[in-house]
Design brief:
Elements (H helix, E strand, L loop, with lengths): L1 E7 L3 E9 L3 E10 L7 E6 L4 E6 L5 H15 L5 E6 L10 E2 L2 H9 L8 H14 L4 E6 L9 H4 L5 H4 L10 H15 L1 H5 L1 E7 L3 E7 L2 E5 L20 H9 L5 H10 L2 H6 L5 H7 L4 H25 L4 E5 H6 L1 H8 L11 H5 L13 E4 L4 H13 L3
Parallel strand pairs: 1-6, 6-8, 9-12, 12-13
Antiparallel strand pairs: 1-2, 2-3, 3-4, 4-5, 7-8, 9-10, 10-11
Helix pairs in contact: 1-3, 6-16, 11-12, 12-14
The structure holds adenosine-5'-diphosphate, acetylphosphate and magnesium ion.
């Protein structure tokens, strides 16, 4: 069985085609990233790492990016038997992957207001796949599913019931990544580690953390929408609600302006004034005060969250860094962990700089790890389980 995994993110569409038998063999994996930035690029490699395409693609929006990706796949690769989609929001109802029927797609349409930066694009991708690969079964895999069993004290906002009745509660995201990371943690560190008190840090363009105990999400930083929680590349993360009220009432910003502000103009980009790309900011920080402040704020907020998750879990056994920043920036990892020795978090700077899988000191109580995430492989596994349950 060939399974295509489609990961519609906020600024990219990533994809992988797997040939599935006993294991999942990558036939091709790639992405169109930088959508709308005028620096877009479509790139893909085959399973041996040979470049199949690497070209500029100035897709101005997700619609044209999606067409470009699927047309390229259709022209170069075998038609998939099944296609799994990352669906960022499953609303209150979806706690596990489902076959995409007309009814499910209709229900997902209703959820668009819950994730306006992600869901319209994913629904568009489902429609395009239906046109281009009419024989393929399609499956929806939800980013929110992993967190649906969070305990009520973490799941609800201190708001009146009437607001909760509208579906306003804490959903949490990056669940496909977290599920994958837990599986990898079990593989590399054993079942006891994966079953313990774990903090998972998915630090990418979108960034979040999850506190996990016995394999279950106990709390996570993103709440109702992917704009909440940690400071991100262009998203503000958590704000005092009074900030939005002030901007609304006193500065007369309308809904569209507030949306743009918290999703696209804040975070690392807003504070530095130059870039939302952590790599750039770390490079220029020594001679740029605003860039340095942006990086420091990012790390401070992440560090503070680890402290609060130590309280939520009653201590931490394992801390995992992942996502583009977590996997590649030894500087950010070091800064985030700085001063956390009182929790047993002590980095071995040599291991950290060399990006080794385990970066803590042998004497530290907490095992600190770097694990590359693979949302596409997780989507493909869940898709296989859904179309051909064992
Ligand atoms: N060596 C590095 N140092 C710092 N940041 C990095 C490095 N490599 C990648 N990043 C950052 O990772 C982010 C992208 O993360 P990624 O998880 O790939 O994004 P997405 O959320 O789009 O999947 C970018 O902000 C990029 O700057
Ligand atoms: C949920 C979320 O933030 O996704 P991404 O990191 O792909 O933007
Ligand atoms: Mg992502």
């Amino acid at each position: 069985m060939d399974i295509l995994a489609v990961n519609t993110g906020s600024s990219s569409i990533k994809f992988s085609l797997f040939r599935v038998s006993e294991e999942f063999r990558v036939l091709c994996s790639g992405a169109l990233d930088g959508i709308g930035s005028s620096r877009g690029c479509l790139h893909a490699e085959d399973g041996e790492g040979t470049v199949m395409v690497n070209e500029r693609n100035d897709a101005l929006d997700h619609g044209s990016a999606c067409m470009a990706v699927l047309s390229w796949i259709a022209s170069r690769l075998p038609a998939p038997d099944a296609v799994g989609h990352r669906i960022v929001h499953g609303g209150p109802q979806y706690a596990s992957p489902v076959l995409l029927t007309e009814q499910v797609t209709g229900e997902l349409q209703q959820l668009k207001p819950f994730a306006p930066q992600h869901l319209p694009q994913a629904l568009n991708a489902i429609n395009r796949v239906t046109e281009i690969f009419p024989q393929s079964i399609q499956v929806a895999c939800f980013d929110t599913a992993f967190h649906r069993a969070m305990p009520p004290e973490a799941r609800f906002y201190p708001l009146p019931d009437i607001v909760r009745d509208h579906g306003v509660e804490r959903y949490g995201f990056h669940g496909l990544s977290y599920q994958y990371l837990l599986g990898e943690l079990e593989r590399v560190a054993g079942p006891d580690a994966a079953d313990g008190r774990v903090v998972l840090a998915h630090l990418g363009h979108g960034a979040s953390m999850a506190a996990v105990c016995r394999g279950r999400s106990v709390d996570t930083t993103m709440g109702f929408s992917p704009a909440g929680g940690l400071m991100m590349s262009t998203r503000s993360g958590d704000l005092d609600p009074g900030v939005l009220l002030f901007l609304l009432e006193q500065e007369h910003l309308d809904a569209a302006e507030l949306k743009a502000l918290v999703n696209r103009e804040s975070g690392l980009l807003g504070v530095s004034g130059t870039s939302g790309d952590m790599r750039t900011l770390v490079d220029i920080a020594p001679q740029d005060d605003r860039a340095r402040r942006a990086v420091e704020m990012f790390c401070y907020r992440a560090r503070k969250t680890i402290g609060s998750y130590a309280a939520a879990l009653g201590g931490i056994d394992t801390l995992v860094f992942s996502g583009g920043i977590g996997e590649h920036s030894s500087f950010v990892r070091s800064s985030v962990c700085n001063g956390l020795a009182f929790l047993g978090i002590e980095l071995d700077q040599d291991r950290n700089i060399r990006n080794l899988p385990c970066i803590s000191r042998d004497t530290g109580r907490v095992d600190v790890r770097v694990i590359p995430t693979d949302e596409e492989l997780m989507i493909a596994r869940l898709t296989r389980e859904t179309v051909a349950p064992v």
